[in-house]
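From the shared-data thread, chain only:
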Amino acid sequence: MKNNGLMKGILVLVVIAFLSLAFTGCVTPTPIPPTTGTVVISIANDNWTYDIYIDGVFCGQTNWTGDLTLYNVPIGNHFFEAYDTSGWFYGSLYQTVIAGTNYVTFWVWED
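Structure, as tokens:
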């Protein structure tokens, strides 16, 4: 008698497990789109160091060749600023950051 009750219990569990798999099926997960990008900043025509700001927040300093790579920058429109560490040059521009690698170039013109 106990064997019969045990078999019915196992059968009910198997049927519930089968039905739950049948109703849910195989679902392919939807990939989560990236929310950040990489920004490569270059100061053209100059070999000096610059303080870089994005939306008014200090993000780092370029090397002596004027290059800086920033990772995990949120996608969207941003205001980029470059301040020459000697105080001679200031540049700013708006640019949209997308997923992947973005290039921001400041041009230095000599008078």
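DSSP finds one helix and seven strands in the chain.
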